[in-house]
Amino acid sequence: MSPMTRAPTLNDVAREANVSAATVSRFLNNPGVVAGETGTRISAAIDKTGYIPNALAGDLATNKSRMVAVLIPCLENSLFNDMIERMVGEMTASGNNVMIGLTGTGTERTDSLVRAALSRRVDAIIATGTVSQNVINMVGRSRTLFIQVWELPEDPVGVAIGFRHEDAGRDIARFLASRGYLRPHVVTAESPRARSRRDGFFAEWEALGLSLPTESITDMPTRFGHARRVFADVRRLAERPDVVVCGSDLLAQGIIVEAQAAGLRVPDDLGVIGFGNNAISGEMRPTITTVDIDGARIAREVMAAISRHQEGREFTSRRIDAGFRLIARDSV
After folding, report:
1. Which tens digits make up the pLDDT trace of 309-326?
2. Domains of the chain, CATH where assigned
């Protein structure tokens, strides 16, 4: 048999499966409505003919793209990677297509990617970074569901699924005070969420009647190499801190390496606490005390929100608190 000189069509599949084109169309849109034996024949016919459904035609008919845009600042050393991997897996399994955009740390590229996603009529946009007024305006004029993750603004643009970073900072302060630490050095990245955690920590530390912490500022995204400069800052202080509070587990790992290279014992001479509970935090020696964010729950809540939106159901709440928990390990 000579190879086909044109792309196979719906009619080719119908002819091969000995059913109508309408039956093939129904099967492609919702396999459950077609009898099992008929569905098996259609699937075999699709495989044999090499037919690729026109997703755009189905989108126009249903007014749903089954496309979701996920926007993250970066892939390297990202706190969001585990959560994003879970979400992409769940969304793909449920029949959605996922496009990932890297926004960087500013707002200009975010605005451009949101505009591109809206032009493709995506069902939802999931954002992990800063939201500008321009994005708020664009999303407000569209039917696309906008989901902010890892934070809980009082008035979300669409739906917010996350936690209060200020509360996380306060919890870290209370935990360290309960362990007897008196001289924390706080390392804050240049981002609104990291600053919220820093402000919560400082406010709680002051409320506990303890002396003002010292601090260092790092660029975003946080890198392993930042630890060397931060540790140099620590060593120049008139009074050495007894614990370093890091904005990520990667930075905490770097501080531990620098401290050990300088002959300090962690935690006997210097405590270190991270944030994010990535894989390295439980595998280091010493293991890293950190704050765990339930990425699996955030992923489930995101999927539930997308399903609700695609089904046209109203939201009972636009703010979902996924919480956090502090995991005490060897480094403190």
Report:
1. 888 898 989 999 999 999
2. 10-53 (1.10.260.40), 64-163+295-322 (3.40.50.2300), 165-293 (3.40.50.2300)
